[in-house]
Amino acid sequence: MNIPNLLTLLRIFFVPLLVAAVVMGSLELRLGRLVIPNELLALAIFLAAAATDLLDGFLARRWKQVTTVGMLLDPIADKLLISAALISLVQVRELPAWMAIIVVGREFAVTGLRSIAATAGYIIQASELGKTKMLAQVVAVTLFLLGMHWPAVKPWAMGWMWCVVVVAVLSAVGYFSKFWRKVDGRIKRRRRRELLRLERERARAAVSARVSGERRE
Prior knowledge:
Number of helices: 6
Helix content: over 70%
Mean pLDDT: 81
CATH topology: Four Helix Bundle (Hemerythrin (Met), subunit A)
Number of strands: 2
Number of domains: 1
Low-confidence stretches: none
CATH class: Mainly Alpha
Order of helices and strands: HEEHHHHH
Shape: elongated
């Protein structure tokens, strides 16, 4: 187990801590005279988890420690972190449920699409919108957590969340259209091959019938 993979696992470990910090309003951390309320504690946990997302990929590429396990765990850890944060914000009535459903549903849909494409021999690379989406989600969750402590930030959080929803939908449409083009092209090529095979079989059958007729004569 290398360090980048350990950082990915650490991000998964942060998920239940984040949920507890967001949902439990009475939770607070005391450091001497300093009292950190639950929303700021949740923010610290979330930002630490998001930082591991940047760090594990950077270290894996720099140290040439890109592994199959890491490639599988990294997107799972990202989706767990964002999904847990959004669902927790819905639980404390900071975020409309329909927004969380769109974003989380998009994650499951695109993951399923990529799995289907992989079984068909296609690798769907992350689009630029898909890469932007993760950063936008981190900013949105950060603003919502800040808004729990400073209500003046809430309009900014909601505005940014609208951007997240739009980017999530557009990137999902991009993935599905890319997949459909590949599948549609594959189906057309398969039909073309089948038609050519049928034409060859008909031609061979016609030749065989002609030869049989000539022999009878």
